[in-house]
């Protein structure tokens, strides 16, 4: 039919989530100290990655169902 919007949204969130989580892993303890000891970059990167993968899985499931 057309382009499923979940594919580019899922790819974008997955890529940005990977980058942000990677930065959180290698950012060091100085960044976590400024945010009350919580590694914000790592956690939000993982949230974005999970959301992106969910969007890609939903798009894949819809495409498989329509065939």
Number of domains: 1
Structural class assignment: mainly alpha
Average of per-residue pLDDT values: 91
User: Helical percent range?
Assistant: over 70%
Q: How is the biggest beta sheet arranged?
A: none
Instruction: Estimate the strand proportion.
Output: under 5%
What ranges have pLDDT less than 50 throughout 5 or more consecutive residues?
A: none
- CA(first)-CA(last) distance: 11 Å
SS summary, helix count: 3
List the helices and strands and how they pair.
Layout lengths: L5 H21 L2 H6 L5 H27 L1
Helix pairs in contact: 1-3
Characterise this structure:
The chain is mainly α and 67 residues long. The chain has one domain. Helix content is 81%, strand content 0%. The chain is built from three helices and no strands. It has helices at residues 6-26, 29-34, 40-66. Helix 1 packs antiparallel against helix 3. It is rod-shaped. The termini are close together.
Can you summarize this structure?
The protein is mainly α.
List keywords for this structure.
single chain, 67 residues, mainly alpha, 3 helices, 81% helix
């Amino acid at each position: 039919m057309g382009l499923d919007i979940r594919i580019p949204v899922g790819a974008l969130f997955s890529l940005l989530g990977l980058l942000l989580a990677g930065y959180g892993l290698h950012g060091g303890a100085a960044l976590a100290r400024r945010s009350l000891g919580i590694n914000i970059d790592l956690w939000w990167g993982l949230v974005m990655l999970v959301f992106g993968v969910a969007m890609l899985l939903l798009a894949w499931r819809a495409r498989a169902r329509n065939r």
